[in-house]
Amino acid sequence: MARKRIGVLLAQADETTQNHFMQGFLQEAFASDYDVLIFSMYVKYQQTNLRELGESNIYELINYDMLDAIVILLDTLQTTGLSDSIQKKIHDKFDGPVLVIDQKSPYFPSVMNDHCTPIRRLIDHLIEVHHYKDIVFLNGREAHIHSIERLRGYKESMKAHGLEINEDLTAYGYYVADSAKYHVPTFLGAGATAIICGNDLIASGVITECKLRGFRVPEDISVVGFDDIPISSMLEPPLTTIRQERSELGKCAYVILNSLVHHIPICRTQLRAALIERESTARYQAPVKKA
After folding, report:
1. At 240, which helix (H) or strand (E)?
2. Cα separation of 27 and 6, whole Å?
3. How many CB atoms are closer than 10 A to CB 107?
4. What are the two backbone dihedrals, phi and then psi, of residue 26, each rounded to the nearest 5 degrees?
5. Is 157 strand, coil or helix?
6. Whole-number pLDDT of residue 288
7. Torsion, Cα of 85, 90, 91, 96 (10° steps)
8. pLDDT in tens, 71-113
């Protein structure tokens, strides 16, 4: 009997979050004697012709007749219109089970991490424990599902505590450190006391930019991230962040896909993110007014 093959479609499989997902998924798939075919491209530069060319071409090479099931990490595909075109093509050409990760699909079932509740818990913590009020948000790519949900959590917590949200100080960049240099000067000039970042890479850039401008972290301003990638604990200071177990998401994705393959009812599972508090946050003290 031929071994069953799962095709996994994603971009930048080498990046930390994708890598952790694949570790969990492959562990379970190989334990069940599946073969896994990974279709990925590795161009890191976002919104460039080179990246769009890579994303548009690699997925045209797939022979869907070779596959028994498909997993698509739609949130990693950034070329405009690519997500919709891939889903439609698979829907039209492939008869097996398909599972979408971290994005809702009009065609296929999906499994998603909760990106709203963890951010809300993080903001609650900063307000209730550290007593911050002037909290600004440097998000990732504007149209990305993670950015949308994390912004929702930020706004829900701020509104629940009766704090004003300055839309001019809610900025978008990309999920890279360079996003910080375009927005940190504005945040500091506006008197922000805490900066929420869409992920840990952005936060690493924010810490660097704050230091370059003579602001101490966390004495003058607190910085927090999201994801808890390996560098987060090695930053100076170590970063307060949210840890999502992407490897566990990978394992859950396999279990759900295997259930679809064998027509087994799917059980609902919720993965809880953890708040990891480190030295990049400090209890806020209002500046003392001189007589």
Report:
1. none
2. 13
3. 13
4. -65, -35
5. helix
6. 47
7. -160
8. 999 888 877 788 899 999 999 999 999 999 988 899 999 888 8
Type of residue at 125? H
Rounded CA separation 34/97 (Å):
15
Count each helix (H run) and each strand (E run) in the chain, helices first.
8, 11
Look up residue 211 and give its two tokens: 């230091």
Helix (H) or strand (E) holding 241: strand 241-243
Three-state SS at 38 = strand
Query: Which residue shows structure tokens 């690519």?
Result: 82
Whose tokens are 């929702």? That residue is: 152
Residue with tokens 């079932």: 109
* Whole-number Å distance between alpha carbons of 273 and 118: 6
87 touches 106 (CB < 8 A):
yes
Write down the pTM of the prediction. 0.79
Q: Is the dihedral of CA 14, 18, 23, 27 positive or negative?
A: negative
- Note the pLDDT tens digit of each residue in 233-275: 999 999 999 998 888 899 999 999 999 998 887 766 667 788 9
Q: How many CA atoms lie within 13 A of 111 on its CB side?
A: 25
Residue among 181, 235, 169, 172 nearest 212 (CA): 181
For β-strands 69-72 and 98-101, DSSP reports them as parallel
227-252 burial: b if 16+ Cβ within 10 Å, else e: bbbebbeebebebbbbebbbbbbbbb
What whole-number distance in Å separates Cα of residue 138 and Cα of residue 178? 12
Closest CA to 25 of 87, 69, 57: 69
- 262 Cβ contact partners less than 8 Å away, ≥ 6 residues apart: none
pLDDT tens by residue, 120-143: 999 999 999 999 999 999 998 888
